[in-house]
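User: Please fill in residues for this 324-position structure.
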């Protein structure tokens, strides 16, 4: 982490996943001298993803951490300043917007692009941590292909869980949906599709207690579950477990200062990354509760940088500012 300093820029970017990196690349190429503050998880969720096969430009699967290293290198090559720090406080009430880092450094920006992402809700099991990336996933779209011809389980009962289960039937031979209640919360249309699919089996009133597998290399072999009514414990054999109990947008810093939706995602204008505060833009998973893909995050990062540039032009903030 860098020592206490004061930074000022025309474009301040918080977060270093695909959205933040793309915003920094576009802002740097517009000669806006952006500053990107990496955050607690430099590189975002892709740094805990192993094989990435759906990011355009690579014929073979690439590793998530490697992909983010390349994005970070591109950010620096384009001339953006990258700071290893994590923001602990922001003030969005007036321009220039201010942010304080865990290092004690002060950051001010004539515009602000929020790319702090979202975090998947997990079950909180020790065994879950052990098998993340080795059978345990929170994204069927990302990892479903790796379970072609295999059996998988999905945990959850909302729209996300049902959509994940339906998607996985394109790859897996059987999908077991594990839900802690006796009825799903998903939309009726999705439920109808789920119950009509012969590949999907639903286990009601059940919670996952432990994820089972073998070491060297780690591979998942099943889950130990318990019925919440009878307390009967059983084992479901499977090759993969998809946790679909929701995502948490990383917006705690901004609550009370910016408009959020009911699930605490930042609200942005239609066909825009503009937020409720002029000069503040949001990109990536912090405002995307639908797609949550690296490529869509990168796309909104591009949009945010272009919109920030236009905002600065309209408000006459033309002279470059440099970090001090």
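Assistant: Residues filled in for all 324 positions:
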């Amino acid at each position: 982490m860098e020592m206490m300093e004061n930074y000022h820029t025309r474009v301040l970017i918080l977060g270093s996943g695909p959205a933040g990196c793309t915003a920094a690349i576009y802002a740097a190429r517009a000669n806006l001298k952006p500053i990107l503050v990496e955050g607690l998880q430099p590189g975002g969720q892709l740094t805990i993803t192993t094989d990435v096969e759906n990011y355009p430009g690579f014929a073979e699967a690439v590793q998530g951490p490697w992909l983010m290293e390349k994005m970070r290198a591109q950010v620096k090559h384009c001339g953006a300043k990258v700071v290893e720090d994590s923001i602990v406080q922001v003030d969005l009430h007036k321009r220039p917007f201010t942010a304080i880092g865990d290092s004690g450094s002060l950051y001010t920006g004539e515009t602000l692009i929020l790319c702090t992402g979202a975090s998947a809700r997990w079950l909180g099991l020790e065994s879950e941590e052990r098998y993340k990336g080795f059978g345990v996933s929170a994204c069927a779209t990302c990892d479903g292909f790796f379970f072609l011809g295999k059996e998988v389980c999905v945990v959850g009962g909302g729209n996300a869980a049902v959509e994940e289960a339906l998607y996985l039937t394109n790859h897996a031979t059987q999908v077991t949906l594990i839900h802690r209640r006796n009825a799903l919360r998903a939309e009726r249309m999705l439920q109808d599709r789920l119950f009509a699919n012969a590949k999907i089996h639903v286990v009601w009133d059940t919670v996952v207690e432990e994820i089972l597998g073998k070491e060297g290399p780690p591979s998942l072999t099943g889950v130990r579950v318990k019925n919440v009514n009878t307390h009967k414990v059983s084992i479901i054999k499977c090759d993969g477990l998809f946790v679909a109990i929701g995502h948490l947008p990383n917006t705690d810093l901004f609550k009370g200062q910016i408009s959020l939706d009911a699930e605490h995602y930042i609200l942005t204008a239609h066909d825009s990354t503009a937020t409720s505060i002029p000069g503040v833009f949001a990109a990536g998973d912090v405002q995307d509760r639908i797609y949550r893909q690296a490529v869509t995050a990168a796309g909104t990062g591009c949009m945010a940088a272009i919109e920030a540039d236009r905002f600065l032009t309209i408000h006459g903030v033309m002279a470059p500012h440099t970090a001090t």
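For context: The chain has a mean pLDDT of 93.
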